[in-house]
Amino acid sequence: MKPPSALYQALATPAGAAALRGMRRGIEKESLRVAPDGLLAQTPHAHALGSALTHPHITTDFSESQLELITGVLEDTDACLAQLDEIHRFVYPAIGDEILWAASMPCVLRNETTIPIANFGRSNVGTAKTVYRRGLAHRYGALMQTISGIHYNFSLPDAFWPWYAEVNGLDLEPQTLATEGYFALIRNFRRHSWLLLYLFGASPAVCKSFLAGREHALETFDEGSLYLPHATSLRMGGLGYQSDAQSELQVSYNGFEEYALTLRDALTGSYPDYERIGLEQNDEFQQLSTSLLQIENEFYGTIRPKRSIHPGERPLHALGERGVEYVEVRCMDLNPFLPLGIDAETIRFLDAFLLHCLLSDSPQDSPEENDALRRNQTRIVNQGREPGLELEDGGRTRDRDEWAREILEACARTAAALDAARGGTFCSAAVASQLERVAHSEQTPSARILAAMRTGNIPFFRFAMSASEAHARYFRSRPLDPETQARMEAQSAASHAAQAEIEAGDEIDFASYRRKYIEQELLPGRARRAADIA
């Protein structure tokens, strides 16, 4: 592999610029539906929104009251945001007087029994989705599952990989080359993702109702709110997508084989705590399996290798058969200051950051390094804006700001290459904005949220509720044109018809379907042979 400096120089050529054209992205945005009083909505998924099972752009996440809005895979940043905006404008008339919660940390929650688990219909595949979520509630609690975020899906254009191979003198077939490249990107992303939590974290506080009866180390902000003074993204810490059981997993990203072997063991070996839950109670399935992970998506990580799957196919099997297609960034909070929760500047920075992760030298990971990365994430989540904070890097400690500037200077080079490919200076400006945030941490979303709460003398709930109401007014003031409205209504109707067809086509009972799915071969080809050797 050529050193990063040589790769950056190659990117600056016309061939390098051509290789970057056609970069693709997609957004998945989770948001709770809340009633006008700010409590979690108890209403079912609106029929006008289509089938949560089959609609390509509107579904539910853990809860029936937790919408997930999904864009297509698009090359243009503005087109991606425009589609997300269009989906919001279709949703709002369908949910009546309810609004979408603007923050990642949830609204006021009375108790776990008031969090309805998503219903995907009576088909086998729909039942499996519901049972999986029932299992999550048993394992981690329903409260944790109401935390929402934005997932950013990123892929290089097909033309990039032949260019990458030629520049590096590699002789690998495209699927292998892309898979190895994406795993290299993931290793570096995990090393540097603390910077994203610092720059974009937007969950420094939470309603007391979220932690009622639970032990925690947060401080009291006011009668209704808990917080940490320098926190960035509590969502990504011990209160959020973390699991004591999963902390035992040492997942390696040193290529697909090592990654797959680790997950296979977690997906197939029974876990005592989950055995005690049992598969069934009163003739109703409580979880898909008793293993540490019911399915691959239960593994919580800041980033995932992804591949489009065939109906009924396991994600791990798809990766082994056809390679990594894209990566899914999972550590982005909803920005409550933005109606869509994300903006073009953030997307452009993410593109430059992810390209930097790919082009930088990416050593193999190790259990020792993974432990250090977890400690870094904990420090940034809880103390991220603390003056003079130090982080671990390769056995030494480093000043947070010094390291941040080093990463951003590298991102400035990839941003310049992206600007050369696309025209304009938008990516470079996005990186420059993040350098400003490093110099002035009060500009970060987490600091701005706490400042707004202090200035307005309001609890977290009132801050988030006001932002949610403002966003609702914004979308409701801009109804879709009749043609777009009719097109999206037809899409919803088609999704209901598709669900009915799936339900009519089931030929086996759910117990048989579940068993067949869970027992599916996870490691095709050479990964299976490597497992046999091990």
Summarize the structure.
By secondary structure, the chain is of the alpha+beta class. It has helices at 4-11, 14-20, 77-94, 124-140, 142-145, 160-168, 174-192, 194-200, 256-268, 272-277, 315-322, 344-359, 367-383, 400-422, 426-439, 445-456, 460-476, 482-505, 510-518, 525-533, and strands spanning 24-34, 58-60, 66-70, 99-100, 150-155, 205-207, 219-222, 225-227, 280-281, 284-285, 303-306, 326-332, 390-393, 396-399. Helix 2 (14-20) packs across helix 6, helix 2 crosses helix 14 and helix 14 (400-422) runs antiparallel to helix 15 (426-439).
Helix-residue proportion: 40-55%
User: Any idea what the shape is?
Assistant: globular
Radius of gyration: 23 Å
- How many H/I helical runs? 20
Largest sheet: 7 strands, antiparallel
- What integer is the average pLDDT? 93
| Beta-strand residue fraction | 5-15%
Kindly provide the name of the CATH class. Alpha Beta
Number of strands: 14
- Which architecture name does CATH use? 2-Layer Sandwich
Number of domains: 1
Q: Indicate the CATH topology.
A: Creatine Kinase, Chain A, domain 2
How many angstroms does the end-to-end distance come to?
A: 29 Å
pLDDT < 50 stretches: 526-534
Class inferred from helices and paired strands: alpha+beta
